[in-house]
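INTERNAL AUDIT FORM
Audit reference: QA-55
Scope: verify that the stored structure record matches its stored sequence.
Auditor: D.O.
Record contents follow.
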Amino acid sequence: MSLLFKGRAHGASDVRIGFVQQVSMLFISHLRQALNSLGELWRQPAASIMTVAVLGLSITLPSTLYILVKNTEKISAGWDQASEISLFLTPQTTAGNAQQLLARLSTWEEIDSTVYVPADEALKEFQQLSGLGDAVAYLESNPLPDVVLVRPAEKFAGPAAAADLLHKLKQQREVDIGKLDIEWLERLYALLDIARELVSLIGILLFLAVVLIIGNTIRLNILNKRDEIVVMKLIGATDSFIHRPFLYTGFWYGLLGGLLAWLAVIIILWWMDSSIEAFAELYQKEFDITGLTGTALFTMLGLSVALGLIGSMIAVQRHVREIEPR
């Protein structure tokens, strides 16, 4: 019994060692083919640099536009006054009535916050901002009404939702006039929508161009190695073994193109930084471009590598299959 147990244990050990050896050999084979494909790019520097440059620049444009649009959205998120509703109260509304209105509005899910501005306070603010100074003191009475500033909740800040909220607020008995600059709000959201769609369209077209460029480059490599592929098929090489070097070539093209695109985006945004800072100073705002984080880098590299692999897969599946020994 003990001999049988030892024999089984010894057999299991051999199987385990064999599996480990197979995994090690597979890893070494992948590593060798990956390094060989990188070496081929190194031995053809002119063609490789031109291909990587085209790929990098193709990825740079949508990446830069995407970062600029995201930062524009961040700026517009601070423009809450664009969807702020001004409610001018009736002359008969007392301070107590105004507080009752504020209490009712605080229960509405469409409203984020409200601010009550009494007529006297509004007149003082008008006196300071208008530059009329003491001329306001000659008025017989305060012509300004009490005002309630209503800021819609985030999901109700769009043009259509804000317009519906304005219509609902006008029906309150204390409200005389309600005002919302719908046209400005519609222009803001329409501009951002156009920018997003433009970035998506340009990105899709350029990413398709990247796939076609890599596919055509891999196709030329396959045709140049036609005789080698025929010999490998004659001696029984598997399809995966034949495909692997070309797939690694697409991987290297994608990786190097992504690194170049990331560097180009940094240079472009650095070049634009002084202009953006000067523009922000006009509105007395501090603004820093965000988006060049580690996450953005890995996303850009992952996308470019995926495009490289897709282009190489398309070329390999189509052209290597057509090469058969006669």
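Auditor finding: record pair retrieved intact. The two ends are 58 Å apart (CA to CA).
Action required: none
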